[in-house]
Amino acid sequence: MSNPLADxxxxxxxxxxxxxxTECHPVAATRIKxxxxxxxxxxxxxxxxxxxxxMAHLHLPLRVGSDVALLLGMAHVIxxxxxxxxxxxxxxxxxxxxxxxxxxxxTPEWAAGITGLNPFDIEQAARLYGGADRGAIYYxxxxxxxxxxxxxxxxxxxxxxxxxxxxxxxxxINPMRGQNNIQGAGDSGAVPGNYPGFQPVNDPDCQKKFSxxxxxxxxxxxxxxxxxxxxECGKSIHAMIINGENTVVSDPDRAHCQRALxxxxxxxxxxxxxxxxxxxxxxxxxxxxxxxxxxxCVNTERRVQRLRQAVPPQGEARPDWWxxxxxxxxxxxxxxxxxxxxxxxxxxxxxxxxxxxxxxxRIENAxxxxxxxxxxxxxxxxxxxxxxxxxxxxxxxVKYRDPAEVVDDDYPVWLTTGRRLxxxxxxxxxxRSAGIDYLLSEESLEVHPDDLVDWQLTxxxxxxxxxxxxxxxxxxxxxxxxxxxxxxxxxxxxxxxxNILTGSGYDPxxxxxxxxxxxxxxxxxEA
Length: 527
What we know:
Blueprint: E1 13-17, H1 21-24, H2 26-37, E2 41-45, H3 51-55, E3 58-60, H4 67-80, H5 86-92, E4 93-94, H6 96-102, H7 108-115, H8 119-130, E5 135-139, H9 141-144, H10 149-163, E6 173-175, H11 182-187, E7 194-195, E8 199-200, H12 204-214, H13 226-231, E9 239-243, H14 247-250, H15 254-262, E10 266-271, E11 283-286, E12 295-298, E13 304-307, H16 320-330, H17 341-351, E14 393-394, E15 413-418, H18 434-439, E16 444-447, H19 449-454, E17 462-467, E18 470-478, E19 486-490, E20 518-524
Parallel strand pairs: 1-2, 1-5, 2-3, 4-14, 5-6, 9-10, 10-11, 15-19, 16-18
Antiparallel strand pairs: 7-8, 12-13, 15-20, 17-18, 17-20
């Protein structure tokens, strides 16, 4: 997030797009509710009438996968109606003239033809956000899990740059992370193009630093993503370690994922429970849960937090850092001789410029948000204040493109997937709670009542939900949350393996799967 969570009290206008925040980030969402009570306004762009949409001053129920068209239409109106911050553009951006010329064809009427929205609503959204003194953008996986995920994020950046909504309180571009330490994982180098601290792997100086640390030459090329890794299973990859992820349930195109894991000669799983993915493993190494572990977690606002062991580990469970370091040592890889989580974190601080001013003792009270470039630095709750690290903000010339697959006569219904409040991710943890099971004991397919009539179905019937990749059996539930022609369900339940259906395409830059758009058909299931 460019701005801290405390800033959620300060915007005049919220623009929430692709984020079901009240269900996926319910604690953070309370700040938006409080801001709305004090007079802030909110635009919500989501195909479904999610609870957040019910609180909005303007709900934009756009067709799934059409976000870029909406954002181009809004940018066109902001430019046309003189709502740009020309001082900010002149002082802090690059490429504005070309970008503003690029926007001319993308009228609200053009955007309406793709999104299914009313052109007037697109104009209203643009004027609300563009006319705000402090406009803040919030988004989550509804924006990124598309073949155009990078385009979506760049389009949001364009809106913020052209209106000057960066580097000030109550503004910013704020992605709400999908899991508790996603930010910390990225900070630590768990992305194929970066070393810890987002240092590029193709930078010669970075290569020298890490070659010295590990006592060996470092491959100068970017690493591969999980998508490529699964594609290479049984080819160039014959062994794999999966740490803390239930890949079989959470990944798209489940059949392909299972075939990939089965083709490995050796699979090691590190996790706190015996998950569905564990059934494919040759070795399962039990890890400690968060309450059994000393460590560090970095949350969605870049706040670096200490985790403290509260209870002893069960059985033979060990911390993840210990397991990984032991594997490395037994493989003869130097540099993994850690004695504690403190050793690991202090090494990260010594290698990462954004953590350079931190150490294990300094994060005792979780008061710092990176970057913290040197000792004594107070941290950086708000990014981009006064300047951009790389000089000027760059406008992106984004164009709309259709999802990887669109509806047709054989698959006439849009499927979009997500999470539910009661079930976290793949239910590895929440699925073992009787209380949670009482609240949500099964997955169902959210279908508009008009569609139930047209498809000659009754609320509660079982149907076969089929895409180009497979079929799952699921119970239908009448709901006006999803518009006619679009159905929704979560991916949480293994007995309704929805990700058998997904996986039609991937963003060409990040290789993020298009989990939010899938063409399906719905047919009555046999009793």
